[in-house]
Amino acid sequence: MKANVVVIGAGVQGCAVAWRLARAGRSVVVLERSIPGAEASSAAGGILSPGVEALEPGPFYALGRASLARYPSFIEALERESGLAVGHRGGGTLEVAFDDDHARLLAGRAVKLQSAGLPVTVLDDAEVRKLEPGLSPEARGALWFEDEGSLDPRALGRALAKAAQRAGASFITGRVLAIRHAGGHAVGVAHERGPIDADAVVLAAGAWSLQVAGHGLPDGAVRPVRGQIAVVETRPPLLSRVVFSGHGYAVPRADGRILLGSTMEEVGFEKAVTAGGLRHVLEVGIGLAPAIAMAPVVETWSNFRPASPDGEPILGPGATPGLFYATGHTRNGILLCPITADAVAACVLGQPPPVELAPFSARRFAASGPLA
Ligand SMILES: Cc1cc2nc3c(=O)[nH]c(=O)nc-3n(C[C@H](O)[C@H](O)[C@H](O)COP(=O)(O)OP(=O)(O)OC[C@H]3O[C@@H](n4cnc5c(N)ncnc54)[C@H](O)[C@@H]3O)c2cc1C
To answer: Residue 43 class from Cβ within 10 Å (0-12 exposed, 13-18 middle, 19+ buried)?
Structure first.
């Protein structure tokens, strides 16, 4: 079998890159050992927040802003081409302080972001509760990132897989064993159903990226970091936008469900919802909005962030011609999906990427020496 491009992994990154490349007329085969979107991409809260994730202006913050700016047209095209809605909600995100030290810290961050011309508003406690009356009376003010929001990552994964397929990408179920190399180039993959030749290989296998032989990344470039989530149901809906405390977050859906997250656990690939993890996320939720204590818990899950050593993604070409990366997105893979799709597809097509990729190149690890 032969394709222009094989994509390893059908999480949101693999599907979005495949969608872009299939639309550009390339023959694309997406290889997924499970169900498209079944892993980290189904487990995410779906928060789209460069403001909370990047502590100060810099390349990572700019990457998040560039991806957020792409979201309206990305969603419009995705919903049209897939026929599926992705549950996008605006209203901004709120980072809430619960003591005076935290409030001072947030105010300092706001000054840095505002002096770089970036959009954030400082709210006092009365203004916060006017926006979100369900929040705890202990709130001591907040940062409001007005143009941020959230979406439903499971719906996003389904829509991306369908849009990619409708654009002409083929999906094959089964595990990729290795990336094949010849003459110093990536020339395809060894798949459990047989070899597949390709002009380009995109590694988008999430937390499992280093389990694909021939990946070309240093040890430790991607590792699993487990996150747990509990979902409570509130009627009528208690919150209307994403709220963060210093310890976690609550992501309300339009139907009144609220996702409470999350943990950051170094436990390898042990998929489990634990008593300690649940206690943590429920305390976060009840601390943010005390009425959550009365809400039924309707679902729980855990999965693995594809974590890089610096928490930033690995995008574009590495040292081996023909091999491209769309991995290592850590806590921000949903936010960074549109810019990943555009940047990695541009690299595969031999076009200039829409943003400077040097800070996110696999080559940055060579400069920093051995990884932990
Ligand atoms: C609890 C939690 C909360 C999160 N919240 C947010 C959030 O609010 N906002 C945000 O932006 N990000 C969030 N994230 C991060 C986000 O989910 C990830 O960064 C993103 O989903 C990564 O996408 P991916 O496609 O790289 O990985 P995945 O979705 O894990 O996809 C990788 C795919 O590769 C497949 N695969 C692996 N190995 C092979 C192989 N050898 N052969 C074939 N297929 C293979 C897997 O089966 C999988 O489907 C969260 C993550 C977690 C766990």
So the answer is: buried
Closest Cα to residue 178, out of 150, 199, 155, 201? 201
Task: For domain 2-75+153-222+309-367, give the CATH number.
Answer: 3.50.50.60
Is the distance from CB of 305 to CB of 12 less than 8 angstroms? no
Domains 2-75+153-222+309-367 and 91-148+223-307 share a fold: no
Return the residue whose CA atom lies nearest to atom 16 of ligand 1.
333
Ligand 1 atom with minimal separation from the 228 CA? 1
Ligand 1 pocket, residues with Cβ under 6 angstroms: 8-14, 31-34, 38-41, 43-47, 175-176, 204-208, 212, 227, 229, 261-262, 303, 305-306, 327, 329, 331-335
Between 179 and 55, residue with greater pLDDT: 179
Q: Where are the domains of the chain?
A: 2-75+153-222+309-367, 91-148+223-307
- Summarised one tens digit per residue, pLDDT across range 300-342 is 999 999 999 999 999 999 999 999 999 999 999 999 999 999 9
The ligand 1 atom at the shortest distance from the C-alpha of residue 335 is 11
pTM: 0.97
pLDDT in tens, 337-365: 999 999 999 999 999 999 999 999 999 99
Kindly report the CATH number that applies to the domain delimited by 91-148+223-307.
3.30.9.10
Strands ordered across the beta sheet of 249-252: 121-123, 142-145, 93-96, 242-244, 249-252, 257-261, 223-233, 297-307
Helices and strands counted in the chain (H then E): 10, 18
Q: Is the pLDDT of residue 40 over 60?
A: yes
